[in-house]
Design goal:
4 helices, alpha+beta, 7-stranded mixed β-sheet, 5-stranded antiparallel β-sheet
Length: about 250
């Protein structure tokens, strides 16, 4: 996909994320209604600031894609995901939950901008999805944890992975519902609508005193966001920092 259809709002600092984005970009064609925006932030009506890895407009819908570059084994215990290898294992929430929340709040802002800019087009549902970008990940999630989870496309001569491909299984898939479809007219209006929403450069870290906060919250509430924080001078010191929204 050419630069005029793929907008890099913020260049990624991370090799694995750059590779994941390039993997998707290689498969996206230069035809309507395909467009994409990578690594941006937006502020929701609630005051929450959200980081978005990738937003893609495809014929079948608008997709907000959360990228996870996980190694080793991925399983779940109830709603929690457990990833890693012996000696380096972490537990976290299914990232689809947060992706869906971001998608709903972004759609609300797009709806408002469409009315404000007199764009006479219906804003479709924005679907959250998760891209597990590294091949070789041993996926042992329960079936109900696999909804809207995708992996990399297999290369010729390579065995298919355990997950549907992000291109063949999602972005090139036929429309599931006509209410989700993206028309060429809407796709052409999206740059102006997103500009009105006020998407901005991704800020990977925020500094609070001596603590460097990861900009992606790992838990959110109606009036707060929790972030992981690392001490600027003592890299092995970590805290959980809560920001109250106004």
């Amino acid at each position: 996909m050419r630069d005029d259809r793929w907008t890099t709002v913020t260049p990624s600092q991370y090799h694995f994320e750059r590779a994941a984005l390039e993997h998707i970009r290689r498969h996206l064609p230069d035809v309507e209604p395909y467009r994409a925006w990578s690594n941006f932030t937006f502020t929701a009506d609630t005051g929450h600031v959200y980081e978005v890895d990738l937003l893609v407009a495809a014929p079948s819908g608008l997709y907000l894609i959360e990228i996870k570059s996980l190694r080793g084994r991925l399983a779940n215990s109830g709603p929690n995901w457990i990833a890693g290898e012996p000696g380096s294992v972490r537990t976290f929430d299914n990232p689809l939950h947060l992706a869906d929340l971001k998608a709903k709040r972004l759609r609300s802002l797009l709806d408002r901008q469409a009315a404000k800019q007199s764009v006479r087009l219906r804003i479709p549902y924005v679907q959250g999805a998760v891209f597990l970008s590294l091949p070789g990940l041993r996926v042992q999630l329960d079936d109900h944890q696999l909804h809207w989870v995708f992996g990399p496309e297999s290369t010729p001569g390579q065995a298919a992975g355990p997950l549907p491909g992000i291109w063949s299984g999602l972005l090139d898939a036929p429309p599931r519902d006509e209410r989700r479809q993206v028309s060429p007219e809407l796709s052409k209006s999206l740059p102006q609508l997103l500009n009105g929403v006020g998407i901005g450069r991704s800020r990977r870290y925020e500094q609070v005193g001596s603590w460097k906060l990861d900009s992606k919250p790992f838990d959110v509430g109606p009036t707060w966001q929790d972030h992981l924080a690392e001490h600027a001078q003592l890299p092995h010191e970590h805290r959980r920092v809560r920001i109250y929204l106004t």
